[in-house]
Write a structure and sequence with these properties.
There is one protein chain. The protein has three domains: about 290 residues, 2-enoyl-CoA Hydratase, Chain A, domain 1 (Alpha-Beta Complex); about 180 residues, Rossmann fold; about 190 residues, N-(1-d-carboxylethyl)-l-norvaline Dehydrogenase, domain 2 (Orthogonal Bundle). Helices cover about 45% and strands about 10% of the residues. The strands form four sheets. Strands 13-12-11-14-15-16-17-18 form an eight-stranded mixed sheet, with helices on both faces. A seven-stranded mixed sheet has the order 1-2-3-4-5-7-10, sandwiched between helices. A hairpin with a 2-residue loop joins strand 1 and strand 2. Helix 13 packs across helix 26. It is globular, with a radius of gyration of 28 Å. Bound molecules: nicotinamide-adenine-dinucleotide. The site of nicotinamide-adenine-dinucleotide (NAD) has 26 residues, from helix 14 and helix 17.
């Protein structure tokens, strides 16, 4: 054979290799070279990344017919996509699965193909560049040898969809590498990058792209050894040792999420504990367990969340045309917004009358880069793009100015009066206000049509959602641009209309205020928090109020109050007193909780008993506010509301979002319950008329 067959320089290696002339059979192309090696390329049509579907497995089965008839000297599999090996299963497939028995049958057929491939008597090699996730990783594991191209990564993200591997990953990975490490990868959904993958024994070699062909040929010639099982592995063959390890794994899983809400990790531990080391038994158990999980409620809701996220991402498509951003205000939010934008490749200037705030913002930016695992060079480049600019010299060149000054309409108006005349007339101005009316703020502007809200959530680096808040005069092109900007910096835009609290804070405020009312009535704060944590919230409302800042909560509550057509909880004097005393929550070290090292200090709760009533008092008003926002066209539809609440507040993802939860619990039941609560606790629980249209 002549020339490099696998050179892969940003274009499909198929164009360069012997498979160039090969006929495509579904997602596969195959060609034999003069040495009798079969090169098999995975190239799913019409998509940038390969996903593993029934079609891929059926195609592989057909390839096996030809391979078995005339056994090649070896088989080399790799992806023809420049971006990577495979992004995992085609998740849209999961949406239609509702019968566990049908799923088990389908999986069994898939397993038969993988087993048949694994049983080939010629050497098989998988070359992985970029990510090999889920089903893609499982195909690699069915090969005798895995060669990683520098930059390759391997992982099983199934757990994020309420699943575990279902195409042989559970037994092939625990077989191939240290079983504890294998289980940890599957239980956490984390990815092993090249070096870690080599150290774990997932990859048998790491090579640069230009050495890939030689490495593949060496592997076929038997010159690439595989690491043998280690000591731990031999120990894990004993069921007593597995049981001990399984207990620890269950305890760790319990710390993350309870079994009732997220059953997949427990199912995986169960199947490994019972059958570890017995491939056949583990395979059968994997099929049965996956079929049960994928048709179960948690996984169905998490798959739904995946598609809600895709829909929000799509809303942030297009080109933003924003190269330079000027951020006004380098406090908690402005500093982080500036750092995040610089990290995502934007040029950023940052101003604040307080130069200490600028210094803190730059230090915070380094910390964010570190937390995001940026390399030294990436961090340096990000920090180079972020310029403290006390004189506001960057404003004329900015395509977008984000104002993150104090939450005070007069201060904001003064900031705009100073900055708008300096701006390029075609640039966009956005406010990060969390509660002020965008329409009212626009009134002081010369170019109100180029103004909107861009409401980031705290912390910016963790909360994916950004509300793009429009007032009636905002140009459609400005809304599109801001949504595309969110997409460009890896955030999810929710386009909403101006309203007290917009969408998310409108929904969240009654939840936080009801917690304060419950405290006023004498309930233990930890019992209140536990009630919603048991529902599946990542954090209870009391802890959340402390985290957001009691001053901000008060402020949002005050500014919402007058604009709503329903009464809110009366804010007790002691709360205003706490804020006046400086006990504002996490940031001051003391709020409802004492805070040490960024963590709320909790002790044993003094109150016990049923918390269902508490949970309903907290959760149902949040759902009711979402319905109100839909009725008033603040949000587009229920799916947008669900996505926004999950990605801005962490609303129990396994419940599929507040509106989806309402639908599954039953609209009539929720309305009846709200009426009951209204009788018992007051008008604020009165069901919104919009429930009538929710059926
Ligand atoms: P912050 O108090 O931490 O920061 C405000 C910054 O603005 C300070 O550094 C201050 O020096 C600066 N500033 C004061 N006067 C200024 C002026 N005239 N020009 C420019 N800068 C000035 O406040 P924050 O929490 O970062 O909030 C900023 C905005 O973001 C507010 O509108 C707030 O409602 C909104 N927001 C806050 C959060 C949150 O959780 N903190 C979340 C979402 C949105």
């Amino acid at each position: 054979m002549t020339g490099p067959v696998l050179t892969h320089l940003g274009e499909s290696w198929l164009e360069l290799g012997p498979t160039r002339t090969a006929e495509r059979d579904g997602p596969w192309r195959a060609a034999r070279d003069a040495q009798g090696v079969l090169w098999l390329a995975l190239d799913v049509a019409g998509s940038e990344a390969n996903t593993i579907s029934r079609e891929v497995l059926e195609g592989l089965d057909r390839q096996l017919d030809a391979i078995e008839q005339d056994l090649p000297k070896g088989v080399v599999i790799r992806s023809a996509k420049p971006g990577g090996f495979a992004a995992g299963a085609d998740i849209s497939m999961f949406r239609d699965l509702d019968d566990a028995e049908d799923v088990a049958q389908m999986l069994t057929r898939g397993h038969a193909v993988m087993d048949r491939f694994e049983a080939l008597t010629c050497p098989t090699v998988c070359i992985v560049h970029g990510p090999a996730l889920g089903g893609g990783f499982e195909i690699a594991l069915a090969c005798d040898r895995i060669i990683a191209v520098d930059g390759a990564s391997f992982g099983f993200p199934e757990v994020n969809l309420g699943l575990h591997p279902g195409l042989g990953g559970t037994f092939r990975l625990t077989d191939r590498i240290d079983a504890i490490e294998a289980m940890t990868l599957m239980l956490t959904g984390k990815t092993a990058h090249t070096r870690k993958a080599r150290a774990l024994g997932i990859a048998d070699a790491v090579v640069e792209e230009r050495h890939v062909e030689a490495a593949a040929r060496a592997a076929i010639a038997g010159d690439l050894e595989q690491d043998g099982p280690g000591l731990t592995d031999r120990a894990m063959a004993l069921s007593a040792a597995r049981s001990l390890a399984a207990r620890k794994m269950r305890a760790t899983a319990e710390d993350r999420a309870p079994k009732d809400h997220y059953p997949a990790p427990y199912a995986l531990v169960d199947l490994w504990e019972a059958h570890g080391g017995d491939r056949k038994a583990m395979q059968e158990a994997e099929v049965a367990s996956f079929a049960k999980l994928v048709t179960g409620e948690t996984s169905r809701n998490l798959v739904r969340v995946f598609f809600l996220q895709q829909a929000l991402k799509k809303d942030g498509g297009g080109v933003d045309g924003i190269a330079h951003i000027h951020v006004v205000g380098a406090g908690t939010m402005g500093g982080e917004i500036a750092a995040w934008c610089a990290m995502k490749g934007k040029r950023v200037t940052l101003s604040d009358p307080d130069t200490d705030a600028l210094g803190r913002a730059i230090r915070q930016a380094s910390a964010i880069c570190k937390a995001q695992h940026l390399s030294g060079i990436e961090t340096r480049n990000a920090l180079d793009r972020l310029m403290p600019d006390p004189q506001q010299l960057g404003v004329p060149a900015a395509d977008l100015v984000i104002e993150a000054g104090p939450e005070d309409a007069d201060i904001k108006a003064a900031i705009y009066a100073g900055i708008e005349p300096l701006m390029n007339p075609t640039a966009t101005l956005a406010t990060n206000s969390s509660s002020l009316s965008v329409a009212a703020l626009a009134k002081s502007l010369k170019r109100p049509r180029r103004f909107a809200g861009l409401h980031f959530f705290n912390p910016v680096s963790k909360m994916q959602l950004v509300e793009v808040v429009t007032h009636p005069d905002t140009f459609g092109t400005v809304t599109d641009q801001l949504a595309a900007f969110c997409g460009a910096i890896g955030r999810l835009p929710a386009r909403v209309h101006d309203y007290p609290g917009y969408l998310v804070n409108r929904a969240l405020t009654p939840y936080l205020l009801e917690a304060i009312q419950l405290i006023e009535e004498g309930h233990d704060k930890q019992v209140i928090d536990t009630a919603t944590e048991a529902f599946g919230m990542p954090m209870g409302p009391v802890e959340l109020a402390d985290q957001v800042g009691l001053d901000i909560c008060l402020h949002v509550a005050e500014s919402l109050k007058s604009g709503l057509d329903k009464p809110m909880v009366d804010i007790p004097d002691w709360l205003s007193q706490m804020v006046e005393n400086g006990d504002t929550g996490k940031k001051s070290g003391k709020g409802f909780y004492e805070w040490t090292d960024g963590k709320a200090q909790k002790s044993a709760a003094s109150e016990t008993g049923a918390t269902d009533d508490i949970a309903d008092r907290l959760i149902l008003p949040m759902l009711d506010a979402c319905v109100e926002c839909l009725r008033k066209d603040i949000a587009r539809d229920s799916d947008q509301v669900d996505g926004a609440m999950i990605f801005a507040t962490g609303f129990a993802p396994f419940r599929g979002g507040p509106m989806h939860y309402a639908g599954s619990r039953g609209i009539d039941e929720i309305v009846a319950r709200l009426e009951e609560l209204s009788e018992a606790h007051g008008e604020r629980f009165r069901p919104d008329p919009g429930w009538q249209d929710m059926g």
